[in-house]
Design brief:
Elements (H helix, E strand, L loop, with lengths): L1 H22 L6 H56 L10 E15 L7 E16 L4 E9 L10 E2 L9 E10 L7 E7 L18 E8 L5 E13 L7 E15 L2 E13 L24 E14 L2 E12 L14 E10 L7 E10 L18 E11 L4 E11 L10 E11 L1
Antiparallel strand pairs: 1-2, 1-17, 2-3, 2-4, 3-5, 5-6, 6-7, 7-8, 8-9, 9-10, 10-11, 11-12, 12-13, 13-14, 14-15, 15-16, 16-17
């Protein structure tokens, strides 16, 4: 096409030259004609070059448009595929996954008793899903966890069993409602995370109570009072009385300054028929009938927590005290063993890469102060006193390396002054 246009243009120019020569009065000499023809050829070459450039630009533009059109087609097909994939019940959309994996070495040394020292490799795996409805007023979730048995105070699985498969347990299964029309009110039902303001003096961190809990709190500037109550089922027995626990809590969050916050909570725990339907004694005194000698656990618990900054570091301190008002044990060495307390300090925090923390705790838990079936298993449950040191370091935002050392011994009984030493080293990945 381009060559055809150029040939027509050359023909038209030559005809013009002949006509001009024919009309001119003085006949031109051959030198002038040759010069004119040469100039015309140069102009034609220049026009041919410009036409080539225009055609190349046009082809490039067409190629770019074709590329954009192809991309649009691919995106359209991808959207169609996405629409096909999203043909799922809305209840399965926008799920939030969470969990953690912990690898642990644990060594234990026992003094003064005929017990073999232990060296164990252990792991903990937890995986859960949450779903929100009604503009996040309603939350429903569950979590599965490892564990060598159904002990409520541990989700650890020891490496043993000749490479056997390891069990998985239901760790959480709950529904929580926080209505917008009543700000500060929350009600939870199911197997839930511990809703009480507490420490491990009374509750092991792995224990998730089962029942129903309601709480209301209201903000008055720097002050936020709260109240809560719960009904929890420990054991359902067809031929005798069920074992239940009712808890009542009132407290206050007080933001004293920008960097100082104090939380104080008073709690009353009423365990009904727990003495004849307990899971394990774990330090509680047992009588000749096999029942807990304390008789009942009606406990008053006062918990204080303070968060503050010192030396440019975040710090958290606490003091926790518990007294069993229902203790009726008058056995030698166990009479009036109804009190317990713990004091602790943590320096630093663990949120992102490079963060670190270190902590210390001293606890003194008499034999009948609190149910040994549900308090700190690493410390040794009830009828224990001693020290705990620990530290953690963030290798990445979600991976931490930590360690802990515990020195504990019985408060009373035949094994007094016989120390147990526990060493733990942890690698934890949270997701």
């Amino acid at each position: 096409m381009r060559e055809f246009i150029v040939r027509i243009a050359v023909g038209v120019l030559l005809l013009g030259i002949v006509a001009a020569v024919a009309k001119s009065d003085p006949p031109p000499n051959s030198q002038d004609i040759q010069t004119t023809i040469k100039a015309l050829k140069m102009r034609l070459k220049d026009q041919e070059r410009r036409l080539a450039e225009l055609e190349s630009a046009r082809n490039t533009q067409l190629s770019e448009q074709a590329r954009k059109e192809a991309i649009r087609e691919v995106i359209k097909e991808m959207n169609v595929d996405a629409d096909k994939r999203s043909v799922l019940p809305k209840c399965l959309e926008d799920l939030k996954f969470f969990g953690d994996l912990r690898l642990r070495y644990q060594g234990q040394c026992f003094s003064g008793r005929n017990r073999k020292h232990r060296n164990r490799a252990r792991f903990r795996l937890r995986f859960g899903i949450k779903k929100y409805w009604l503009d996040k007023q309603m939350e429903v979730g569950f979590r599965l966890a490892s564990g060598s048995n159904d002990d409520p105070t541990s989700t650890n699985q020891t490496f043993d069993g000749h490479f056997s498969e390891k069990p998985v347990w239901i760790d959480l299964a709950y529904a929580k409602y926080s209505p917008n029309w009543l700000k500060g009110f929350t009600i939870i039902g199911g197997k839930m995370k511990n809703p009480f303001v507490h420490t491990d003096l009374v509750w092991d961190s792995d224990v998730n109570p089962e029942g129903v809990w309601g709480q209301y709190k209201h903000n008055f500037g720097a002050l936020e009072p709260f109240v809560g109550t719960g009904y929890f089922i420990l054991d359902e027995v067809n031929r005798s009385h069920d074992t239940i626990m009712v808890g009542y809590q009132a407290g206050l969050n007080w933001k004293i300054t920008k960097d100082v916050k104090w939380t104080c909570a008073a709690t009353y725990y009423d365990f009904d028929h727990f003495d004849t339907s307990y899971r394990r004694a774990n330090g509680n005194d047992v009588n000749n009938d096999g029942d807990l000698a304390a008789g009942q656990f009606h406990m008053f618990n006062l918990t204080n927590k303070v968060g503050f900054k010192a030396l440019g570091l975040p710090m958290n301190a606490y003091f926790d005290w518990v007294h069993n008002c229902g203790d009726k044990d008058n056995t030698d060495d166990y009479d009036n063993q109804s009190d317990g307390y713990a004091i602790g300090l943590k320096v630093g925090k663990n949120k992102k890469k490079g963060d670190w923390s270190a902590g210390y705790k001293y606890a003194y838990i008499e034999a009948n102060a609190t149910p040994g079936a549900i308090n700190d298993s690493d410390f040794g449950h009830s009828n224990r006193k001693g020290h705990t040191w620990g530290a953690k370091y963030n290798l990445t935002d979600s991976l931490t390396l930590g360690g802990k050392v515990l020195w504990t011994e019985p408060v009373t009984g035949d094994d007094q002054n016989e120390r147990d030493t526990t060493v733990q080293a942890d690698l934890i990945w949270k997701f």
